[in-house]
Amino acid sequence: MSKAEKTRQFIVEKTAPIFNTKGFAGTSLSDMTEATGLTKGSIYGNFANKDEVALASFDYNLLKLRSYLNAEEEKAITIKDKLKVRTRIFADERPVAYPTGGCPLLNTATEADDTHPALRARVADALEAIKDRAVRLIETGIQSGEISAGTDPEQAALTLMAMVQGAIMIARTTAKRSYGKSIMEATQRYIDSL
Description:
Elements: H1 3-26, H2 29-36, H3 40-46, H4 50-75, H5 79-89, H6 104-112, H7 117-144, H8 153-174, H9 177-193
Protein name: Transcriptional regulator, TetR family
Organism: Chitinophaga pinensis (strain ATCC 43595 / DSM 2588 / LMG 13176 / NBRC 15968 / NCIMB 11800 / UQM 2034)
GO molecular function: DNA binding
């Protein structure tokens, strides 16, 4: 890795938690300089603008989330247990490998839906990838007989996504973790019913 690539990576690693916590609009240049210890010129010498830093930070947070989820899925034996990974994460007390600030998909989607088309597109692509992964798991479960043959894989995947993201949003907005846990338990029962 070149010195410039190392500097870019350093900036992203230091600013990603801020963007994921404060959002695009809430993250200032002074937040970025304070987190990195670099000057404005150093940051903008490596990135064209705040948008580029935000996009790279989202990608970093998403990769961190995906890596964590993939590692947890690999530990699961059954298809239903693999599908339940996202519901069990909520019960964890903020795993070290999980991005600071929580789910980057939910955090970024709610802010960027009308204000930042490039971030919105990244979130949309990530959601499609998550749906496609769940569809493949469900199809595998149908083929192996673990999941009912009458299950519509795409509908089930979308339902699971909505339940998980909804649980996170409701728990964080109300500051009642018990609400999220309750929804995640219902999500696990839904997976068992497939």
